[in-house]
Amino acid sequence: MISTGSHLSIYAFIFSKIFKIPLILQEQNFLLSKSVRFLLPFSKYVFLGFPLKKKNKKFVLTGNPIIFPEKKLEKKEARRILGLENKKTILFYGGSQGSKFINNCFIEVEKELRDYQIIVIWGYYEIPEDLLKLSNRFIYRFRRDMDIVYQAVDFAVCRAGALTLTELIYYKIPSVLIPYPYAAKNHQLINALNFKKITGCEVIEEKYYSKVKLFSSLRRIEERKEEIIKRMGEFSFEERIKKIEEILC
Question: Who's near 81: CB < 8 A, 6+ residues apart?
Fold first, then answer.
C-alpha cells in the first residue's frame, strides 16, 4: 500500500492494517508533511523525492516518479516539432493550474527579452488578445506534450512545486524559481532554497520580486548554465528512480 501524503493517508494506513499489507509512504518535497511524520512509525519505507537533513533507516532516496518522454530529442528537433525557431528559449510556467503572478512577470519583462523566444503556459486565466499577436511569444493555456516543451527550452521561470523541480532536474533546465508563498508550511520556499543548494538555480521570493531582480537572475543562470546543468546531472535521477521498482518487485 503506497500513500503520497495528505489527510487521505489515514485510509491507506487503515487498509494496510486490515489487509496486513506493508505501508509505504512517499514524500515529494524537501520536508516531511504532517501526515508522513504521523505515519512514519507504521510504515516500512518512505520514498523521498529529494534528500532530507533528517535521517531515518526507513528513508529511501528515489526521486519523484514522472512520466518519462517517449523519445529524447535535441533542442533543435523539439523546437521544430513545436513550430519554433531554433534560438534561445525561455519557459514561463506556473505549474499545472497556471499562475497569475508568473503570467504577470512575463508581461512585465517580455519587451526586454527580444533576444529570446518565450513559451508561456498560462493556465486557466483569460489570455489578453494583444499577447497572442506578439512575435516569438507562444502562449498556451495548457500543453499535453510538456516533455517536448521542456526539451525545447534553455531556461525557465517557474514555481517550486516538487514535481516541477523533478522535471527541471530530469530535463536539466537552469531556472529562476519564484515559490508560491501560500503553500502549506511554506514548503515551496523550502523546496526552492534547497534546490538552489543542489543545483545553483536562482530563487526570488514573491514579496521581494522586482523586474530588475528577475533580469539579474536570468543573467546569472545563463552565465552559469553549464555548471547548473552539470550539477543537475550529478543528482542521477534515473538511477535513483529504479529503487522503487527494485523494492516493489
Answer: 73, 148, 152
Evaluate if pTM is beyond 0.85: yes
* The domain over range 75-233 is classified in CATH as 3.40.50.300: no
pLDDT in tens, 20-63: 999 999 999 999 999 999 999 999 999 999 999 999 999 999 99
For residue 174, how many other CB atoms are within 10 A of its CB?
Answer: 26
The total number of residues written for the chain in this structure: 249
Residue partners of 149: CB distance under 8 A and separation at least 6? 78, 82, 91, 119, 121, 143
Per-residue pLDDT tens over the stretch 203-241: 999 999 999 999 999 999 999 999 999 999 998 677 788
Calpha distance 151→192 (Å, rounded)? 22
What is the domain partition of the chain in residue ranges? 2-61, 75-233
Cβ atoms of residues 178 and 158 within 8 Å: yes
Alpha-carbon Rg for the chain in angstroms: 19
DSSP 24: E
